[in-house]
Description:
Distance between the termini: 15 Å
Number of helices: 3
Number of strands: 4
Helix content: 40-55%
Radius of gyration: 17 Å
Number of domains: 1
Structural class: mainly alpha
Largest sheet: 2 strands, antiparallel
Shape: flat
Amino acid sequence: xxxxxxxxxxxxxxxxxxxxxxxxxxxxxxxxxxxxxxxxxxxxxxxxxxxxxxxxxxxxxxxxxxxxxxxxxxxxxxxxxxxxxxx
Length: 87
C-alpha cells in the first residue's frame, strides 16, 4: 500500500517540494514520505485559520459541539486504520 501525505490548508490538500521519511524502529523499514513545510506554508495555514475563525466564533456552542462530536465519531470509526498507520 502506497500512502501519500499532504498538508491541509484552507480545506485543500497541498503538497510540498520537499518530503522526508522516518523509519519504523521495530522493522527498520522506511515509512511513507511526509511533507516538509516551509515558513510560507505555515504562514498560509495561519492566514487561512485567521480567515476561518470569525465564522467559527459566530457558531452557537451547540453547533460547535456538533462539529467536534462528528469529528470524534469519524476518528472512532477509523480507529483501526489510525492504529495501523501510527504503529
